[in-house]
Recover the amino acids of this structure.
């Protein structure tokens, strides 16, 4: 069979005439973490999904070169790419060289996409992905050029290539370029303009300012201290229409708002010339600037509210919400609580509601971009329906995705074993495997579906089972079950899933309930840490009490190796500050912060000293990893600890990964192992380290 030696792979690549292997349902899944991936690439494991080209990351079709041993495949056209391009139309100054490392690629200078293969000029820091480098429009130089007043170089019209990432913004309107086509760009300067922004007229006459024409500027006037649009009062960047005589300005996006139609209203709306103080009928908040009015209905609107949608879908509620101007039902009239911020809503003005559930929300709360469901995803109710993670074999016997053997309901638990899924003590009702001493509590089996839509995320989450993973909410290392969002690269442990699923939390000793505030920024009253934003806070703003995820998932009781009794989580210490010490680290404690206490032994300690970073990690369970031949396990060694293979220090009291073979000296501190095996975790903190079970 025909084969080639390619610079991107260590083994010869053999030509095959069809898609390699029997992909079946495995197509589109990462061979490393076994999770479905987006656009053919897994950012956690840095691997291309099965059934995709390892060069351009597109689906494999027709002839391809591949290495079956490594699962590495290239389209025939990708394998035969020329390694150097001289005088490319988009960069004729220097030759472009084909490169391999995706993580040395900042993104294509035209479409911002990142893929494994790309062409690069090191002298100019210029990159092109394969699609743009080989696109017929660019190769044939059949593209329109525009010399725009806002940029020194000619701009190139890109007509049928979509912008790939949400980071790039248009220099005119400062809106994202994501999925935008056509658009103008300057590849050498990484400068972008939407086509509509590039073609804006240089002068306009606007009905809100009839004295003088408004001139288009590339950026706000330098002498203005505060630059805000006279129509919507928003501060602005980018293009602006400006009258230098009157110091009057509009954002370019608002300059052409004359008589308009709005989705939330049946009549045309007319801009009001001048500035007045008013209460917007659409959202119920004040305004003191230009506005739109409906003469027939005697309604007045903010300019932003004219773009409100009649119905929306938010991630906090399962049904669509409809916009209303006021509540006609006398029983519902008056004031209600917003189910997002829990402040009162004046139902005499506009709000969003679900009439079936009596669910109300402020307009500005409901349209927050963090809460609005992504309309592009169009996830149907069928996709978010509860899908069990197990298959019923017969009454009392199941096949669960997390274990290779069947599990049987009932049995005897010895030695205080815990559930493999949630790391809690085994209750009276559980499933077990007689061959492996594998236990799952009934709650984990029946209460955790394989796929869910959680209200903290816009995407579908999938249940997985690993030896150790990092929860991106409480920041604890955990074992067992967790819900993964592949789109966000965020994993949620079961503890956080249960806490957040309640939405409202009651804390012992706290008068008011706590609700989830995704905009909260401040310190946590449990640990006095400012790191954790998006916390649960008290409805009463005068109370100013808030808790982060980490404190909310702290176990009510915990054990420390030098105490026979369980330590209880305590929320306040009435002793004087001079008498508050941690009996583990021997440092002072703040009596206002949470701590663990044993009343029998009069021992108190910081939560971090008792739990360290891994209170939910399963110790002693053997599993396999890619870089060692024997099974390994996670351990904490108290006496006679061996030295870490990486740093050379004893592995005492720290979470470590150790070989299960008695004669093998393989052992690493867990932190040392992550830095040794996954040095890129520091550079790309969203990428998580996952280890495979045997």
């Amino acid at each position: 069979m025909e084969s080639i030696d390619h610079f991107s792979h260590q083994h010869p690549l053999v030509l095959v005439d069809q898609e390699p292997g029997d992909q079946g349902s495995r197509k589109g899944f990462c061979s490393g973490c076994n999770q479905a991936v987006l656009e053919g690439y897994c950012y956690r494991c840095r691997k291309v999904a099965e059934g995709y080209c390892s060069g351009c990351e597109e689906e494999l079709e027709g002839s391809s070169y591949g290495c079956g041993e490594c699962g590495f495949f290239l389209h025939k056209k990708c394998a035969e790419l020329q390694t150097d391009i001289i005088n490319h139309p988009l960069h004729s100054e220097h030759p472009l060289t084909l490169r391999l490392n995706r993580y040395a690629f900042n993104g294509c200078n035209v479409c911002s996409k990142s893929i494994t293969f790309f062409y690069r000029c090191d002298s100019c820091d210029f990159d092109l992905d394969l699609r743009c480098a080989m696109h017929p429009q660019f190769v044939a130089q059949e593209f329109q050029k525009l010399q725009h007043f806002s940029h020194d170089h000619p701009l190139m019209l890109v007509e049928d290539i979509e912008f790939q990432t949400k980071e790039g913004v248009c220099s005119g309107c400062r809106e994202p370029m994501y999925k935008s086509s056509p658009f103008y760009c300057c590849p050498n300067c990484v400068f972008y303009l939407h086509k509509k922004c590039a073609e804006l007229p240089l002068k306009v006459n606007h009905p809100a300012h009839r004295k003088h024409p408004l001139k288009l500027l590339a950026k706000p006037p330098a002498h203005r201290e505060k630059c805000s649009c006279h129509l919507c009062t928003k501060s602005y960047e980018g293009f602006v229409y400006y009258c230098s005589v009157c110091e009057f300005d509009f954002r370019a996006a608002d300059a052409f708002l004359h008589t308009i139609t709005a989705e939330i209203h049946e009549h045309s709306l007319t801009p009001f010339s001048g500035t007045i103080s008013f209460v917007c009928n659409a959202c119920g908040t004040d305004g003191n600037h230009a506005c739109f009015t409906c003469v027939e209905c005697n309604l007045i609107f903010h300019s932003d509210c004219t773009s409100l949608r009649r119905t929306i879908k938010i991630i906090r509620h399962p049904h669509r919400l409809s916009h209303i101007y006021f509540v006609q039902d006398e029983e519902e009239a008056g004031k209600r609580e917003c189910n997002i911020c829990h402040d009162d809503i004046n139902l005499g003005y506009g709000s969003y509601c679900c009439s079936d559930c009596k669910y109300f929300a402020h307009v500005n709360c409901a349209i927050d971009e963090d809460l609005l469901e992504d309309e592009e995803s169009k996830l149907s109710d069928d996709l978010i329906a509860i899908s069990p993670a197990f298959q019923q074999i017969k009454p009392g016997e199941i096949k669960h995705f997390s274990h290779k053997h069947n599990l049987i309901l009932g049995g005897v638990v010895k030695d205080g074993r815990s559930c493999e899924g949630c790391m809690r003590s085994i209750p009276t009702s559980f499933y077990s495997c007689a061959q492996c001493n594998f236990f799952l509590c009934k709650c984990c089996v029946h209460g955790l579906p394989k796929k869910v839509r959680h209200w903290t995320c816009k995407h579908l989450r999938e249940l997985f089972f690993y030896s150790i993973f990092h929860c991106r909410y409480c920041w604890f290392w955990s074992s067992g079950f967790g819900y993964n969002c592949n789109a966000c690269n965020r994993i949620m442990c079961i503890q956080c899933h249960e806490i957040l699923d309640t939405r409202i939390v009651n804390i012992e000793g706290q008068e008011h309930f706590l609700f989830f505030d995704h905009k909260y920024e401040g310190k946590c009253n449990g640990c006095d840490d400012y790191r954790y934003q998006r916390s649960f806070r008290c409805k009463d703003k005068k109370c100013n009490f808030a808790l982060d995820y980490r404190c909310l998932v702290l176990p009510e009781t915990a054990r420390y190796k030098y105490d026979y009794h369980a330590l209880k989580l305590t929320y306040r210490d009435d002793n004087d500050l001079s008498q508050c010490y941690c009996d583990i680290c021997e440092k002072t404690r703040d009596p206002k912060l949470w701590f663990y206490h044993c009343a029998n032994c009069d021992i108190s300690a910081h939560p971090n000293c008792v739990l360290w970073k891994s209170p939910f990690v399963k110790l002693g369970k053997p599993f396999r990893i890619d870089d060692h031949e024997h099974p390994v396990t996670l351990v904490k060694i108290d006496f006679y600890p061996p030295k870490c293979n990486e740093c050379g220090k004893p592995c005492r009291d720290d979470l470590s990964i150790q070989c299960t073979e008695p004669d093998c000296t393989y052992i690493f501190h867990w932190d040392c192992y992550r830095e040794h095996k996954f040095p890129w975790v520091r550079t790309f903190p969203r990428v998580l380290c996952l280890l495979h079970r045997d």
Q: What stands out?
A: The first helix runs from residue 76 to 79. The radius of gyration is 30 Å. Residues 435 and 449 are 25 Å apart (CA to CA).
